Amino acid sequence: MPxxxxxxxxxxxxxxxxxxxxxxxxxxxxxxxxxxLEEAIGLSxxxxxxxxxxxxxxxxxxxxxxxxxxxxxAANQGIVQVMRDMLARxxxxxxxxxxxxxxxxxxxxxxxxAAWTQRSAELTSxxxxxxxxxxxxxxxxxxxxxxxxxGYLDLVLDGLIARIASGxxxxxxxxxLDLVEASVRRREV
Length: 189
Fold this sequence. Notes:
By secondary structure, the chain is mainly α. 77% of the residues lie in helices and 0% in strands. The chain is built from 9 helices and no strands.
């Protein structure tokens, strides 16, 4: 039997995750049946579950992958810029549906919550590190602890995701982000 190249395996894994992302975003975790996953991915269940133990492992891998991408963007550009990009180019943020499903599963599935707590630390760490760098450079408020700034920005991000997911992308959301950005910046005296 011929050996499959690492590039082929990586491409297949990426194909599976991309299709699963669309399926979970459209139908939610519960509604993303194996049949729907097969249709969205374009592969048989045998091909899909050769790479992932089961639907739960597939969803967790997808959530992990999306969290790593978001952590990279947050570390390099900041969380407010991520939110601006979400408004400007929502088609590039196909992980929004995954993030909503993660929130639901964290709330309802203790096993998922325990596993996810470890994974979400990467995103928190990346965002916190950027905030610390910006604060040290004098760009952010120094009268508010960094972890409070992080909690505030996470809350705004979650709210923005909920707004976008519900189809409410009013023109004033950009102005709201201007206000959010101004509220965390260091005030000139």
